[in-house]
Amino acid sequence: MARFPRGSSVPHLLYSFFNSSTKSTRPSPHSPASALLLGNFHLRQFSSSAARAKEDKEPWWKESMERLRNIGISAHIDSGKTTLTERILYYTGRIHEIHEVRGRDGVGAKMDSMDLEREKGITIQSAATYCTWNGYQVNIIDTPGHVDFTIEVERALRVLDGAILVLCSVGGVQSQSITVDRQMRRYEVPRVAFINKLDRMGADPWKVLSQARAKLRHHSAAVQVPIGLEEDFQGLIDLVQMKAFYFRGSSGENVVAEDIPADMAAFVEAKRRELIETVSEQEAIRRATIARKFIPVFMGSAFKNKGVQPLLNGVLSYLPCPIEVSNYALDQTKDEEKVMLGGNPEGPLVALAFKLEEGRFGQLTYLRVYEGVIRKGDFVVNINTGKRIKVPRLVRMHSDEMEDIQEAHAGQIVAVFGMDCASGDTFTDGSVKYTMTSMNVPEPVMSLAVQPVSKDSGGQFSKALNRFQREDPTFRVGLDPESGQTIISGMGELHLDIYVERIRREYKVDATVGKPRVNFRETITQRAEFDYLHKKQSGGQGQYGRVTGYVEPIPLGEATKFEFENMIVGQAIPSNFIPAIEKGFREAANSGSLIGHPVENLRIVLTDGASHAVDSSELAFKLAAIYAFRQLYTAAKPVILEPVMLVELKVPSEFQGTVAGDINKRKGVIVGNDQDGDDSIITAHVPLNNMFGYSTSLRSMTQGKGEFTMEYKEHLPVSQDVQVQLVNAYKASRATE
Predict the structure, then answer these.
(1) Mean per-residue pLDDT for 599-610?
(2) Of 253 and 29, the one with more pLDDT
(3) pTM summary value
(4) At which positions is GTP bound (predicted)?
(5) Is 75 annotated as a binding residue?
(6) Which strands, in side-by-side order, build the sheet including 327-331?
(7) Residue 146 marked as a ligand binder
(8) Pairing mode of beta strands 602-610, 562-566
(9) How far is CA 715 from the centre of its chain?
(10) How far apart are CA 406 and CA 258, in angstroms?
(11) Residue 54 known to bind ligand
(12) Is there a binding annotation on residue 608?
């Protein structure tokens, strides 16, 4: 019997293959199956790499890069990500006691550093932390599971080399699991899966594994088999080592390896064969995982302190180090030509600011260093702004605590103070003009009018809004041109509620909140010509500008929302007035005449015009464009677009008819209906405008047993009757002003 104390680990997944006698429960190490597994699971033996470096003249940084992992932990809401991170920090010796997420003990989990997070038991900001395991440095970003905060998930994945996708053994693959998995695909992040909560009533890891294969199209296989489930969950059998592991001690810190229980031998052998067959369709497991062709599946219960240490070993064994991942920059001197970054600390500095926070000592900027070295006191250049900035202080983060460091090299994630920048800016040492590819920032779907209760707190109110905008690109602030009210926009009700609450807590400003408003858009459906002359003479210099051309729709779903094209041949309008004309059209498109919302998906083409030697000016042509737009708008047959949400509901089957009927009443379209045990899983596309207060309705329809998640899908035209209602309501509100 072998014991492994906290801070070390179970030997690597392969170690016992080389160092233990062959048992009848596994094939000979010389058999084809074992050769395959050994080849597949091969983990470099780094102990001799220093000596090898001298022989092979390997660079000084190679070994430290191989011993580095940058990982994220992503999942559906309440799958246990933060609890898992807490256990990882405990077993790696970074913290010395365990606290639960909902703060029942008055402390709350280490990674949930904001009061609000501890109270609600959800993770809002991505806290960055690091730990060491078996001589490896592991940087972990703990990401939110609520769909309102997917920008945090996107930013985290953008800078990571690998990820753990946490799935609940009871809830299985849910809508947010699909969202984060899609994000991982977009950023090409290799991943391992961890099926959590095996101690819970109804736990079924094999059902979850088949769901991952069907719904997420994962080419995956289990690398472990649980010993018992629900309240009988005792430990795990490792299908590579063919050993049973139990987690003893008050917090599961003593991992004990024993022989496989005799009554499980046949089942384990079958699962091992399944693993070998799945892998043999691919290639070596480490290579297949890094190439995103295979996903090893681990199991456990973070809450019950079981399965976390083997998962950590899996992170080291199967997820890539920084030099095994392809990262590209865009060379701004060569028309954004793609440049491969090799992750070489001896190369020129290239670092991406992927997260901003307002810390106690000013703005804290999280950086991922892709190439080169950044040192405290160095001057760096922000390529996006062209500014040269000194690095006053460099720190390594552990949730909201920090550790000062002198330098950081390629592959590392660090934070710096006092660097004025925006999220997504790229820093270099000035020798290259590279930018990292920009991150996908979704458009906000909902707005609220907010204003401070007390006029005296206006300064703090503005300070809070400015800070939140810098930190979160999906949080926007604007003014209502008619009422003068402050309008905040974001990714949903929870998103905006959290910010209103943070204004109250962190800045001591009470705010009154208006009714949530949906961010409608307007667009045109057909081509329309324009020919408008703006002429004004009132003594002194007059105004003269004529614009001629046409407007046409850009198909919905295109990335470009507004295009302006000057096709004038000759000098009918002097070229210095063309920017003013474009500005006029853009300004006019900010507010359509149907309901005053922005007009998008249109191309404006200028074909002719006329100017006057004395009376033409930028203002005259800008006004000509604005009036031309208003004149042509009706002829272009405008329609109103509304945000449509992807809604996934999980309700007991006896309520399925009532809930489906209610979705239809809300003008929703049901696109999927699956059975999951006694529950129905309904997927629907529903206009956001019809979803306010839905959680209360769902609770009353299902006796509190139904749950739902909702995320933005697309903007689509409203029906004719809804358009008439919206236009009439807009006209009535204008008439009463």
Answers:
(1) 94
(2) 253
(3) 0.65
(4) 75-82, 142-146, 196-199
(5) yes
(6) 337-341, 327-331, 434-436
(7) yes
(8) parallel
(9) 21
(10) 45
(11) no
(12) no
